[in-house]
Structures are given as C-alpha cells and as structure tokens.
Amino acid sequence: MPLLSMPPLSVNLIIIIFLFIVSSPTSHGADNENYTTCHQKKYDCGGQIKGIGYPFWGEDRPPFCGVQGFELTCYGNESTTIVIQNQTFHVLRINQSANNMTIARADLWDNLCPVELSDTTLNFTLFDFGPHPHVLNLTLLYGCVPNASYDHIEARGHFQCPEVAGNQSSSNINFFVEDLYDSYIPEWECKSRIRVPVFQEGLYAFWGDDHMTVEELVKQGFEADYHETDKFLACDSCNYSGGECGTDTTTNQVICFCHNGPQSYMCPGPGVYLLFFPQLFH
Ligand SMILES: *[C@@H]1O[C@H](CO)[C@@H](O)[C@H](O)[C@H]1NC(C)=O
Ligand SMILES: *[C@@H]1O[C@H](CO)[C@@H](O)[C@H](O)[C@H]1NC(C)=O
Ligand SMILES: *[C@@H]1O[C@H](CO)[C@@H](O)[C@H](O)[C@H]1NC(C)=O
Ligand SMILES: *[C@@H]1O[C@H](CO)[C@@H](O)[C@H](O)[C@H]1NC(C)=O
Ligand SMILES: *[C@@H]1O[C@H](CO)[C@@H](O)[C@H](O)[C@H]1NC(C)=O
Ligand SMILES: *[C@@H]1O[C@H](CO)[C@@H](O)[C@H](O)[C@H]1NC(C)=O
Ligand SMILES: *[C@@H]1O[C@H](CO)[C@@H](O)[C@H](O)[C@H]1NC(C)=O
Ligand SMILES: *[C@@H]1O[C@H](CO)[C@@H](O)[C@H](O)[C@H]1NC(C)=O
Ligand SMILES: *[C@@H]1O[C@H](CO)[C@@H](O)[C@H](O)[C@H]1NC(C)=O
Ligand SMILES: *[C@@H]1O[C@H](CO)[C@@H](O)[C@H](O)[C@H]1NC(C)=O
C-alpha cells in the first residue's frame, strides 16, 4: 500500500506510539519540584494579564518553565512588557488558546517622536505579525516639506512632535499614511519614516471618530502570533499527557515535567492512550 493512501488516523497513531516509546525517563529526584513550580507559578500582572504559562516566563516564573525570548516583565503590578529584538513592547493582551498577543511599542507610547526612530521588527523565528489586513502597517513620516497635495488629503493624519524631538521648524509636518501609499511620497520630502503595525479595526475607528488621535491609534497596538514551531507541537503532547512543558536550560531543548520526573516528550501511563482516544476517533 503506497504511503500516501494511508489514512491520517494510522499516521497519528504511529507518531503517538513512537513518541510514547521514545519517552523514557531521563533522570530522577527533585523532579516533582519542577513540575509543581511550572504548574503553580504562572505569570500574573494586574487585572489583564494573568495565569500565563508556557512559553512565557518572568518574575516568579523561572526560565525553565518557558522559552528563551518569551520573558515578561511586570511594572507595579500594572503593565507588562516584552523585549523583542531590542525593542520594548507593552503587552496588552495574551490569548493562550490562539497563541497570539496584542503588543504596542513602548517607545511610541504617548509620544510618536522618540529620539531614535526605528521600524517595528519582530524575531521571526518566534513571532509573526497578525494576518493581513487584520493587521496593517502605517508609515509615519517626519519632518516633511509642506506639500499642498498631501497637506490637504491627510489633514487628520497629522501629528505634532513635542519640542524635545530636535529643532522642528513649524513649516515641517509629520503625518501617517497606510504603507501602500508611502512610495508616493518622494524620499526627499521627509526627513525620516518608520513603519508601525496597527489593527485595521483601529484605523477604521480612527477615521470614524474625529476625537481619536494618532497616538491613541498606535497605543491600541497590533496582534503578534507566536509560531506553532516544533517546540509548541512537542508541548501539546506533554500537556495532554498531564505534564508541564519547559526548557532544559542546559541543552535548550523542550522538556516535559511530569509528576514522577522529567521526560523528553510526554508523561508515561495508560492515561496517555485514553486521553488521545477522543482525538483519534472523532
Ligand atoms: C495585582 O493586581 C491584581 C488586580 O488588580 C490584584 O488582584 C492582585 O492582588 C495584585 N497583586 C499584588 C501582589 O498586589
Ligand atoms: C541590539 O542591541 C545590541 C547592543 O545594544 C546591538 O549590538 C544589536 O545590534 C542590537 N540588535 C538589533 C536587532 O537591533
Ligand atoms: C531570535 O530567536 C531565536 C530563538 O530564541 C534566537 O536564537 C535568536 O538569537 C533571536 N534573534 C535575535 C536577533 O534576537
Ligand atoms: C482567543 O482565541 C480563541 C480562538 O483561538 C477565541 O475563540 C477567543 O474568543 C479568543 N479570546 C479572546 C479573549 O479574544
Ligand atoms: C488572537 O486570535 C483570535 C482568533 O484569530 C482573535 O480573535 C483575537 O483577536 C487575537 N487576540 C489577540 C490578543 O490579538
Ligand atoms: C509591515 O512592515 C514590516 C517591516 O517593518 C514587514 O515585515 C511586514 O511584513 C509588514 N506587514 C504588512 C502587512 O505589510
Ligand atoms: C531652529 O532652526 C531654525 C531654522 O531652521 C533656526 O533659525 C533656529 O535658530 C533653530 N533653533 C534652535 C534652538 O536651534
Ligand atoms: C507634492 O507631492 C506630489 C506627490 O508626491 C508631487 O508630485 C509634487 O511634486 C509635490 N510638490 C511639491 C511642491 O513638492
Ligand atoms: C494544557 O491543557 C489544559 C487543559 O488540560 C489547557 O487548559 C491549557 O490551555 C493547555 N496548555 C497549553 C499550553 O496547551
Ligand atoms: C529544576 O529545578 C531546579 C531548581 O529550581 C533547577 O535548577 C533545574 O534546572 C530544573 N531542571 C530542569 C531540567 O530545568
């Protein structure tokens, strides 16, 4: 029988049996402790962000309960930040079942004119921008020469820089456009430009509400997805088998903390097969 005609059911079964066989205890002693730690010490910060588990860690939740690059920091039991590629973001929401979060650039929080202007970047081995056009880029343009054509059209998209951001002669203007249009504005007309993702919904709200400012639009943030990489797939089987996912901090590999000790993939026991039955036979 050619492999391609194999029903997906038996492929699943083989993978699960394989994982079960290769899951052998790696060591014993002081093990429950790690399971208990990762199980109990979720990341909590204020009313919005709480009960956050793998792949996140930070504050009371130790690094071995999460993945490198997912460290959260809590300020005054109120606001959470994450650092991605040297850029600090405010974390506004995390949806653990969808593996996504809403983040907003900390350097543009309440002030669209930071001293150092930079594009928004993510570490694409760990994160991705939310799907287009749900998430889209704005281009913020700074220090542009007045030009009647866009001065008029983009009147609502203008924003002011406080005096601190260099010597801004009043004849220079700042405004945003959707990045589709940014190539229509010649290089020489503006001193700098940066890209900032926002929710399309937020942009619609902005155009529909005369009182909403560009600052407020950017503060709503954008969706970032964290990938379904091997680490998360491996983590699913661990979680279903009753374990707590973590990282072996010496090898940087996924590890499954079980009640009776760490395993490489999932926790052993007849419960594993029972837990998988509903998935296999629905
Ligand atoms: C942090 O804030 C939350 C919600 O505002 C509150 O329930 C919790 O008790 C606070 N924790 C600490 C340690 O103050
Ligand atoms: C991050 O910051 C370090 C030191 O400040 C610098 O060497 C590095 O190039 C920066 N990386 C990125 C991606 O900006
Ligand atoms: C991106 O994430 C990967 C995986 O954690 C890490 O190895 C790499 O150093 C990160 N890249 C940057 C530029 O931070
Ligand atoms: C989280 O994502 C799931 C879908 O993956 C969705 O059903 C749920 O409404 C989301 N929760 C929030 C608070 O957005
Ligand atoms: C995560 O994805 C779900 C489903 O696609 C979406 O409804 C939700 O708004 C997203 N959540 C965040 C925090 O961006
Ligand atoms: C937005 O710009 C970033 C670069 O800053 C790019 O990586 C990303 O793909 C762009 N997103 C869309 C939807 O065009
Ligand atoms: C700001 O720039 C204007 C001309 O562009 C110049 O006349 C003025 O002296 C500058 N002010 C300061 C404080 O540098
Ligand atoms: C104004 O902008 C338009 C479109 O980019 C360009 O064609 C025109 O030359 C500009 N005019 C001036 C006075 O800079
Ligand atoms: C692990 O399983 C529990 C239910 O048993 C679920 O609530 C939780 O979201 C799962 N966590 C991950 C990271 O899949
Ligand atoms: C288990 O916890 C101990 C102490 O908290 C820690 O030193 C060790 O690295 C953890 N084990 C693994 C495999 O991460």
TrEMBL record:
Matching entries from PANTHER family are given as: LEAF RUST 10 DISEASE-RESISTANCE LOCUS RECEPTOR-LIKE PROTEIN KINASE-LIKE 2.7 ISOFORM X1, OS01G0690200 PROTEIN
Enzyme Commission number: 2.7.11.1
A Pfam entry, by short name: GUB_WAK_bind
Q: Name one GO molecular function term.
A: protein serine/threonine kinase activity
**Locate the Wall-associated receptor kinase galacturonan-binding domain: which residues?**
38-105
Q: Where is the signal peptide?
A: 1-29
The chain positions of domain Wall-associated receptor kinase C-terminal read 169-260
Where in or outside the cell it occurs: the entry states:
Membrane
Its keywords, alphabetically, are: Glycoprotein, Signal
* Name under which the protein is recorded: non-specific serine/threonine protein kinase
Presence of the UniProt keyword Glycoprotein in the record: yes
Its GO CC terms are: membrane
Q: Using the UniProt record, name the top-level EC class of this enzyme in a single word.
A: transferase
Q: What's its catalytic activity?
A: L-threonyl-[protein] + ATP = O-phospho-L-threonyl-[protein] + ADP + H(+); L-seryl-[protein] + ATP = O-phospho-L-seryl-[protein] + ADP + H(+)
> Which topology term describes how it sits in the membrane?
Single-pass membrane protein
Q: Which domain of life is it from?
A: Eukaryota
